[in-house]
Design goal:
The chain is of the alpha/beta class. The protein is built from eleven helices and twelve strands.
Length: 334
C-alpha cells in the first residue's frame, strides 16, 4: 500500500517580501512526498504566479480540508472578505495583517492535527507590530499560542545543529538571561526533540560564555557557577552532555563528530557558525512545540521582492526538513 502523503502547511509570510516567490518556486520539489497547503490569500499567490510566470494552478480549499484531491495547489484563504493588492517590495499594514492571520491559521491547523507540520515564510517584525501583533518573532507567538514556554530555536545546516539559550535580546542584557535554569531547560528541550527526530540519547555540547570557556576561572566564572550546575542536573536525568567547550573550537569539532548538537548561549554565538557554512541552506526549526515548525533562515528581502532573483535553497531545505521529520497525522475526510 502506498503511504499517504504528508500534508505540510506553508504560510505566506509578509506577501510584500520574497515569501510568495520562494514558496511558488519551491513547489516543484518533493512532489511525490507531500501535499502543500498554502495559507494566505489566493489573489496574492495568483498575482505572484503571473509576475514570476510559474504557471501553477491553484484552487481555494475550505477550512475542513475536504477537497485536497483536486488538481492544482490548494490555498487556504485568510481574511476572505477583504480584497487587497500587494506591491512587491513595499510593506504595508495590509501585508502584515495577511502574514499575521496566515501564521495564526497555520498554528491552529497544526495544533488541531489537520496538518503534519508547519513551514513559515519570512515576516516583517516591525510591520507586524504596527499591525497589532504583540510578539517579536514567529517563535514568541508560537510559544504563547501553544502554551509551550520551553520551546527553543534550532538552526540546522550542512551537518551542524545549533540551539540557542537566548535569542533576540540586546547584548548588554544577555548575561541576565543566562541562568542555570534557562540553560537546563534548553538542554532538556534539545535532548527530547532530537530523540523524537530519531537521534537516541543525542550528544550535546555546551558553549562557554567566556574566552576559552573561562580558562579554569581565570577569564570568568560563569562556566563553573551557571553552566556546570545545569549540566550536572541534566546528567542526573540521563541526558548525554559532552561538556563545556570554547565556542571558537566546538563548532568545528562537532562537524568532525564530537557532538550531535551545540547549545549556544546567545544569538550571534550560534548563528555566525551556521551562516558561515550554510548561508543559503540553513533552516530555522522551532523545537519544544506540540508540532514541527520550520522556516528558511533569512528575512523578507524587500529589495529583491518580485524580481525573480530570490534564492530558494533555504526554503527548499525547510520544506524537506518538515517532510522528513513531521509526525504523520490522519486528515479528517469530512
Amino acid at each position: 500500500m502506498m503511504a499517504q502523503k504528508k500534508l505540510i502547511g506553508i504560510t505566506i509570510g509578509d506577501p510584500a517580501g520574497i515569501g510568495p516567490e520562494i514558496i511558488l518556486k519551491s513547489l516543484s520539489y518533493f512532489t511525490e512526498k507531500y501535499t502543500p497547503l498554502l495559507i494566505g490569500k489566493l489573489s496574492i499567490f495568483q498575482q505572484y504566479n503571473c509576475l514570476l510566470k510559474t504557471g501553477i494552478s491553484f484552487y481555494s480549499s475550505d477550512h475542513l480540508l475536504a477537497n485536497l484531491t483536486e488538481a492544482g495547489i490548494p490555498v487556504l484563504e485568510v481574511l476572505p472578505d477583504e480584497s487587497m493588492h500587494i506591491i512587491p517590495g513595499t510593506p504595508s499594514i495590509d501585508s502584515a495583517r495577511v502574514a499575521m492571520h496566515a501564521l495564526r491559521t497555520g498554528a491552529d491547523l497544526a495544533l488541531g492535527k489537520k496538518i503534519d507540520a508547519l513551514v513559515t515564510a519570512p515576516i516583517y517584525k516591525k510591520g507586524m507590530q504596527d499591525a497589532g501583533f504583540a510578539f517579536q518573532t514567529h517563535t514568541d507567538f508560537l510559544a504563547h499560542h501553544t502554551k509551550s514556554p520551553d520551546c527553543a530555536m534550532m538552526l540546522v545546516g550542512k551537518g551542524l545543529k545549533v540551539v540557542l539559550v537566548t535569542v533576540h535580546i540586546p547584548f548588554r542584557d544577555i548575561c541576565a538571561h543566562i541562568t542555570s535554569e534557562t540553560v537546563y531547560k534548553t538542554i532538556r528541550t534539545t535532548s527530547r526533540s532530537l530523540e523524537q527526530m530519531g537521534i537516541p540519547q543525542p550528544r550535546i555540547a555546551v558553549c562557554g560564555l567566556n574566552p576559552h570557556a573561562g580558562e579554569e576561572g581565570m577569564l570568568g566564572t560563569e562556566e563553573k557557577t551557571i553552566l556546570q550546575p545545569a549540566i550536572d542536573k541534566a546528567r542526573r536525568q540521563n541526558m548525554h552532555i559532552t561538556g563545556i567547550f570554547p565556542p571558537d573550537t566546538i563548532f568545528w569539532q562537532t562537524l568532525q563528530g564530537k557532538a550531535d548538537v551545540v547549545i549556544a548561549l546567545y544569538h550571534d554565538q550560534g548563528l555566525i557558525a551556521i551562516k558561515t557554512i550554510a548561508f543559503d541552506t540553513g533552516v530555522n526549526v522551532t523545537i519544544g512545540l506540540p508540532f514541527l515548525r520550520t522556516s528558511p533562515d533569512h528575512g523578507t528581502a524587500f529589495t529583491i521582492a518580485g524580481k525573480n532573483t530570490a534564492n530558494i535553497s533555504s526554503m527548499v531545505h525547510a520544506i524537506d526538513f518538515a517532510i522528513t521529520h513531521a509526525h504523520h497525522c490522519v486528515i479528517p475526510n469530512e
